[in-house]
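B., you asked whether I could sanity-check this one before it goes into the benchmark set. Here's the sequence:
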Amino acid sequence: MIQASTNSMPTQISLQRSKVWTRLALGALQLGCCVSLWGYLSKKAVGAENIILNYGALEFSVSVDSLKTYSQTGELEGTLKSYADFLTPEQLEQLRVGLNTSADFSPLAIAQFLYSYQGEKILERVARVIRTKARQPGFYALRSALILAAADQDGLTPLNVLKQFPTEVLRVDSKQGLEIVKNLSQVVQQNNLAIAAIEQESIRERQEIALATPQVRTLDLLIPGKYRYRQQMLTMIDSDRDRTLPVELYVPVTKRPKLLPLVVISHGLGGDLTTFAYFAQHLASHGFVVAVPEHPGSSARQIEALLSGLDSNVTPPEELINRPLDITFLLDELATRYGNQIDTNNVGMIGQSFGAYTTLALAGAELNWATLERDCPDLENSWNLSWLIQCLALQISTPVNGVELKDERIKAAIAINPLVSSVFGQENLSQIDIPVMFVSGSADPITPALPEQIIPFTWLTTPQKYLVLLEGGTHFSTLNESAGSIPVPQQAIGPSPKIAQNYVKQLGLAFFGIHITEQAFYADYLNAEYGAVISESEFPLRLVESLDPELLKLKSSQ
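And here's what the prediction gave me:
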């Protein structure tokens, strides 16, 4: 069933909701950074007061009061002054800023997240390092401290969490903390080696192109196309699954009736209709109909429900099945209503994060129960945060045998920051036989580039595949920002959202131009040489069409 409003409706839904998940992730990362700093400080110690740093049989101490004084005045006192010899001025300043950095969450919001599946898993990992006076894992004490700090007038800061810790002494297992630092350093090193391999391949492909016919390009793919378009708000009701989907439809205005190409955009966890509005508008100006559904079980509204106490899940496990079925239902409804206006049998698909999973499932990658059962028992030892979503598949309560997620109408797919390593695995990801583009951020802590995009790119067997690496890009670099959104720290967004969005506009248009509308000239805009042309020094881009696994000589580090 479709309920439509014939009036164009603005979709400036506040990004406060869609940024909530971002800020929760940042909070977890911030806490992890503090743990790492404490572990580093434990290399030298004199005296003891409130924080005890353990390293095997050895115990050292640092005063919370000295941390408080330093955070307020910049003066180093007591034991902290001794530890300062092991830190650079930049690290000391980062420590001071970190101690005072506040996250504006209500106690209810913090409690709801920390009692969710994802929150508990993150907390369990941190609790291995932060322990109580009795040397017990600090899971419950830390959860209590976080909630109390959020309720305190000074707000949720690392320093306030220390003050709210419900035991006289907080113990930090420095050996565990240093092991974490070591593991993360290895991840960074491997990531850097992979980036170097992609750079090497990009140079090789550019040289190969240079030896062939010179590229002649006359188009500026950033310029809007010639079409005006109208926006139409639809409400689609799937009574069989009890799902209501708001859908924003962008329709080019043409002088003569003709069958228009279609692209569907699937937002990530905590997203909404505005997340990729900039790309929808760009495609519509170039003659594409663009359909943007809002997935009810994983949208900003779902995160709102979690944080307000109306739901206990970041997202229900069944969302892994419902999301692809949302798109199939959407295509069925569009075919019924607009079949003589929109080509629903030749569809382009793009999604980010959870939306990228949705895209690849529709493209033909089946859920891989073998890899999930292999990987998920080791979830507590993994720093790959995307496993917190991938492993939800094992909690799906409804029967899924025989449920077909692939939709043959999807003919080309772009996956931005996809999560694939366990939920699909190599065997099932290689089943995709349509053109695919992966877009990866080298500084993405949520769906890390190496295990979730770079290595999986080598698993793809489709002859038409592309890997786009945004050097310095994060999980949030390509997302839309709008007036009234909650500010997100620059390091969490990446060098420049505008540049990242321009990359998506240009390469997305070229990809769908050649693989959906079959305009051959776009091939000149979809290779390593063009990637170098549009790459900006502030935010470099690398585009390759192949990557030898032997060149990587790496295995996914979880």
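One thing to flag: The longest strand covers residues 342-352. Otherwise nothing jumped out at me.
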